[in-house]
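Hi, can you check this record?
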Amino acid sequence: MSDDLYWDQVALLMHLDGAMNGSTRFREETGKVVTAVGNAMLSTAWKRFGATSLLLDGSGDWLTVPTASGFAFGLLDFTVEAWVKTGSSGRTIVSSNSAAGGWALWVNAQGRLAFDCAASSAIVNVATGSTVVNDNLPHHVAVTRSGAVLTLWVDGVADAVVACAVSIPAPSALYIGALASSTAASAWLGHIDELRITEVVARYNEPFTPAAEAFGGDPTAYDLDYDKVVLHCRFDGENGATNFVDEKGHTVSRIGAPVISTNQTFQRFGGSSAYLGASDAIGFQHDDLKPGAEDFTIEGWHALASPVSATRPFITMPSADGTGVGLRISSSQTSPFAYNGVLIVNGVTVSSTIFLPTTYGAQGVHFAICREGDYLALFSGGIRRYLFNIGSSPIETNGALYLGQDPLTGGSGSIRYYDEIRYTKGLSHYSKDLTTYAVPVKEFPNRVLQRLSGTVRDSAGNPLARTVCSFRRRDKLLVDECVSDPVTGAFSLQAIDTSAHFVIVMDDAKNALIYDHVVPVL
C-alpha cells in the first residue's frame, strides 16, 4: 500500500477488509464511526484487494456514516470512487443527504453509472455513462469534478463528461449502499470494495490505469521514536476474539476471559477495543518492559463499563522478585486516576488520595504515565493531573505488566475497556512541565522514518557545505532537506523507504550537482 499525497483531503477511506467471512466490523481510516444496517457484512466471496469486500443483499442492508464535518463539496473539486461488482440495476453505491440536498453515485435502470445531485429538493441527473457495469464483473468506478467539469469514469476511461456548476451542500449523513431518500428501493445488491471520497481534489483528469493495490494512507504516519517502543497493542479484531497482538512481538496472556469487543460503547480506533470483566486481566512479560531508571511513557485509552466505588487495579508492574509491587496505579469512579486512587512505586505508596474528576464516553479517556528524570507525571484527558518526585532510583520490576485485575493480590478488577496501549522507553512523550497536552487524534503509527546519510565532496575529495535533498523515487516527493557539514561534508536525511529514494546535492545557485560525489550509507 502506497502513501497518499492527498491524504489531508481524504474525507472517507474504507478498505472494507476483514479477517473473516461474515464480519460486521467496519473500519474507516480517518476515524469516522460506521454503523451497519440490516445484515451488511464483509465477505470473502469476492474482493478486489485484501481478504474481503462489503456484501449487501439488496434488501435492507447498508452502512451509515454521520457527518458533522467533511464531504462539503460546495462548488469545489472532488472525487468519489470505489470498486464494485453487481448484476443488478437501479442500485446506489454511495449517497449523501441533508435538508438542502445531496448527491448519489449509482447504477441506473439500464445498468450504467450515473451521478445525481441537488442543491435543494430538486434532484438533477447530472451525468449518465454509456458503459454497462452490472455485468457481474469487477469495475473501478469514479466521479470527479474539476472546475465546472464533471466526469464519470469506468475502469480508468471517461464514460461521461458534462458541465456541473451545482453547489453541493454538506450532508447530515452518508449512506454506503443505499440512496439516502429512498433506502429500501435503492439498496445495493452485490459487492463494494475500496471506497474513497476526496474533497478539493479531482484525482483523475485524463485516462488512467486503476490502482493495482489498495488505496494509500497517511504519508505522515511515522513515529520517529518507534525503535524505542517496547509494547504496542491496538486491540483490533472481530467481536469476541481472544487473540491479542502486540505489534512488537511479545506474547500477550489472557487472565480470566478478556475479549475483543466491537461494542460502540467504547472503541477509540479501529472499530474495536479490549473488554475486561471484573476477574479479567491482560498480561505482558518481557525484559524489554523493565523500566529501570530510564524515562518512559505508558499511554493509551480506556473507559469504564460501569463506575465502581472501590479502588481497583488499573496498571500493575510486579516487583523484581514478583511478590510485591514495582509500579501500580489503582483507580475507582470514572477516571484512570480517580477518587481513592493509589500510586505505588517500588512498594512504597506515593499517594493514596488521587482525585481527578473527569468524564468518559464512547471516545474514552487518553491517559499517560510518564517518568522524566526524578519525576513521575500522570496525565489524562489533555491535563497533567499529578506530578510526583520519586527520586532517581530505578523502578525495579520483573518485566511483567498487567492491565485490569492485579494477579498478585487477586480480588475484583474494574469492568473496563482498553484501546491503543503503547509503552515507550527512553523518553517521556509528554513533558513533566506541561500542565495541558494535546491528546493524540490518530492511532499510534507503527513505522519509523529511516535515514539516508553520506558526505558531499568536490572532485578533489574536499568536504563541501551544500543543500542536500531526499526524494521518493516513484512520485518525486520531497521528503527531507538539510545542509551538509562544511567541515566533514556529512549529511543525514529522513527517508520513508531507503530502497526507493534518491539524493540530490545542489550548489548555492540551486543547480543539481553530480550524484557521484555523494556517498550514501544506507
Summary: The chain is about 0% helix and 40% strand. The first helix runs from residue 183 to 186.
